[in-house]
Amino acid sequence: MTPAELATRRYAVQGLVAEAGRLALDYFGRQESLGVTMKGAQDWLTVADGAVEDFLRQRLAVLFPTDTVIGEEGGGAASDAVWIIDPIDGTMNFAHGDRNWCISIGFLHNRVPTIGIVAAPALDELYVAQRGQGATLNGRPIRVSATEDLKRAYVELGWSPRVPFERYLAVLERGYAAGCAVKRSGSGALGLCHVANARTDAYLELHINAWDVAAGIVIAGEAGASINDFFAGDGISKGNPILCSTPALAPQLREIVGIS
Ligand code: IPD
């Protein structure tokens, strides 16, 4: 696909995401009817997750009938042209009325992360990137921080019960011992975007799924971040660790997280 063909796809999907954002916001404004259930321990689900994913799947099938789709709620298969969707990333926040949630869509062409769109409608923020074309927030170019010293680094460490708590605590401890300030905000997709626009210096997580990071990898990468090869091995279907940081901090953070 040429850059122009990819740009046409990007614009089309930006339109879909804007509609999906309005749908999600409508649910978000009616907290009492979110129909919150649990898929497992600390694994939250609302009716909005299914509704937004269904909407995006239907519309993507019309726009790109030969592409495949992988979604957090409905699964799916990889292909040379695959859209990877998290209908609501940060569902725990969404279910508690916290605005730090987003819709995330990434496009992999021949296994290469190529288009990333992350919309946070409750924050009025839209992150967009296309491989080789830069990354923007609400239309303005964004860039990672220039931080070089861990003693002034602001780092987000994602958590889920998929990883033994001891491993998470060990990374947290090593991060603080190295001088980082560490936080967790509950949306991996926005976590990567926040590295992209220098709100943080790095996002780390010992295991995360492809739908949480497929878009953010393009956005942060285009903003200059150093990112591990997340899609290596079974990354698309089973997830992997993620380490996304401003370049100067990457070698030290790799040691802290214990991944290459
Ligand atoms: C979760 C969030 C969270 C991350 C978890 C994800 P969900 O996704 O991105 O920040 O730490 O690994 O599972 O369940 O809100 O879509």
User: How are helices and strands ordered from N to C?
Assistant: HEEHEEHEEEEEEHEHEHEHEH
Regarding quaternary structure, what we see is: single chain
Sheet/helix structural class: alpha+beta
Number of strands: 14
**Shape from CA axes?**
globular
Q: Mean pLDDT, rounded to whole units? A: 95
- DSSP summary: helix tally: 8
The ligands found in this model are: D-MYO-inositol-1-phosphate
What is the rounded distance between the termini?
31 Å
The helical percent reads 25-40%
Question: In percent terms, what proportion of residues is strand?
Answer: 25-35%
Strand order of the largest sheet: 3-4-5-6-7-8-9
Largest sheet: 7 strands, mixed
Low-confidence stretches: none
Rounded to the nearest angstrom, the radius of gyration is 17 Å
Give a description of the structure.
With 260 residues, this protein is α+β, with helices and mostly antiparallel strands. 37% of the residues lie in helices and 27% in strands. It is built from eight helices and 14 strands. The strands form three sheets. The chain has a seven-stranded mixed sheet with strand order 3-4-5-6-7-8-9, with helices on both faces. Strand 1 and strand 2 form a beta hairpin. Helix 1 runs antiparallel to helix 2 and helix 5 packs parallel to helix 6. It is globular. The two termini are 31 Å apart. D-MYO-inositol-1-phosphate binds next to strand 4, helix 3 and strand 12.
